[in-house]
Amino acid sequence: MTLIRATLVISLLVYALYVVLNIHKRKRFPPSPTGFPILGHLYLLAGKNPHQHLQKLAKKYGPMMYVQLGLVPAIVISSVDAAEKVLKTYDHIFASRPHSEASQYLSYGQKNLIFAKYGVYWRNMRKLCTVHLLSNHKINSFQSMRKQELQLLIESIKKEADHDRVVVDLSARILSLNANLTCLMIFGKKCMDEDLDKREFKAIVQDVVDLASTPNLGDFFPFLGVIDLQGLNRKLKDLSMVFDEFLERIIDEHVEYHDRDQTKDFVDTMMDIMQSGEAEFQFDRRHVKAILLDMLLAAMDTTASTAEWILTELLRHPQVMKKLQNELQEVVGLERMVEEPDMENLNYLNMVVNEGLRLHPAVPLFFHEAMEDCVVDDFHIQKGTRIIINCYAIHRDPNVWPDPEKFFPERFVGSSIDFRGRDFQLLPFGSGRRSCPGMQLGVTIVRLMVAQLVHCFEWELPNGIDACDLDIDEKFGMVTCREKPLLAMPTYRLKK
Ligand code: HEM
């Protein structure tokens, strides 16, 4: 009790000091909703769907909206023009990441990429990852592994589909397939529950993503970090130790049994770089572990939740599903499964995936930080301001997207807009210096999963579930997941 009271008094004093100091240097800031004393607008991040709350507020306060998150000033970006300003025109100023308590436990002392401050270290590490891990050449080297895993999934669903009216949990299947694809690519083996302290592997990864994306008071009141009032740091520390043990074991195994003939997984590649000294910057086992953890956390939920949302929309829009099946039948035929080289001829599939990424971006809010004071559209943005890009709001802006709430892949017919974010209308992977280096890999996997599941099976909703009932409630977090599993009944379509 005494600790809480003392904390409150200190917060009040620091806040008062902060307000007084700021009065003297008040400049023109973007419009802002009314906030609470001390907490400011932190409540906006604490709800279930912060991207939706911020989208509603932006309609009233504009596409550049000022919010005070505890002691941290922040600007929420909600339009194409404003996004272009921060991700292109002033990208050199806004390309850093804000302080995050979570990063202390997940980045091996700021050695990873996702949380890294902008600078020489980030640039070198990013180059290393894009050249050695996420290049087209590297992604293609895992093609046969992806084919094999998809075949296994299709075979297992086919066996079930032979029984009459079986219900398949598509959410679980997609999550599991994506976990296998990710682990095989990064670690060269599928991850089993016993690998992580006998706890369920996928659930632990999900826990870490959830904890890292829950607003931590220490991020907004730095002096509260050590007190850890929400207990988030303690939980993250525990989980990071479980991961560290796992990563150490995996690296040891790779050092011991190095099979030169096998496709090199990410551990092999990183260990080769470490041993050769070609990194041109200090690069030891801690750097290897930090990047492996980055790749695992960045790839697992994002890709699976995107594929799951697209399948949900296809179940809700049977005419789109039929059109996609017709395209697949025409290009691939019913004699065989879809293969990666088919993708370039599947235009409608690409539109379906773009539309899924638009309506359900897996990372609806992403965070940058201003590295120096600057003025954008006459508004003053001070050094250290958090820049929150609300791509969910941009993707549903009626000025850019007619009938924005509708799932309508045909809107991309004849359009040059695509997921890379070059025109700032579709930003599921961000844009500019900090854009997602795994976008090509993510899109390849999503396209493949959706194409294969739709090509091989006819899907029907179980009795009692209506297409419009399909739960589209989104869970809080960086990654928007469904709350209920996606259930559907398959009938095999292919000729063998
Ligand atoms: C559908 C799947 C995915 C989506 C929607 C997605 C989305 C994003 C977004 C929005 C960002 C932040 C961009 C910004 O701050 O401007 C990001 C960053 C990042 N993503 Fe992805 N991502 C996906 C898959 C992947 C995959 C498969 C990998 C790697 C295996 C990956 C690795 C990363 C990394 C390392 C960063 C940090 C980059 C940096 O800070 O320089 N992502 N991603």
TrEMBL record:
InterPro entries, alphabetized:
Cyt_P450, Cyt_P450_CS, Cyt_P450_E_grp-I, Cyt_P450_sf
Instruction: List where in the cell it is found.
Output: Membrane
- Please provide the record's keywords in A-Z order: Heme, Iron, Membrane, Metal-binding, Monooxygenase, Oxidoreductase, Transmembrane, Transmembrane helix
Asked if the keyword Cell division belongs to this entry, the reply reads no
Q: Which cofactor does it need?
A: heme
The record, for Pfam families, names: p450 (PF00067)
Q: Would I find Transferase among this entry's keywords? A: no
Where does the protein principally reside? membrane
Q: Which residues cross the membrane?
A: 6-23
PANTHER family given in the database record: CYTOCHROME P450 (PTHR47943:SF6), CYTOCHROME P450 93A3-LIKE (PTHR47943)
Q: Which family does it belong to?
A: Belongs to the cytochrome P450 family.
- Protein name, UniProt field: Cytochrome P450 CYP736A12-like
Give the species this sequence originates from. Solanum pennellii (Tomato)
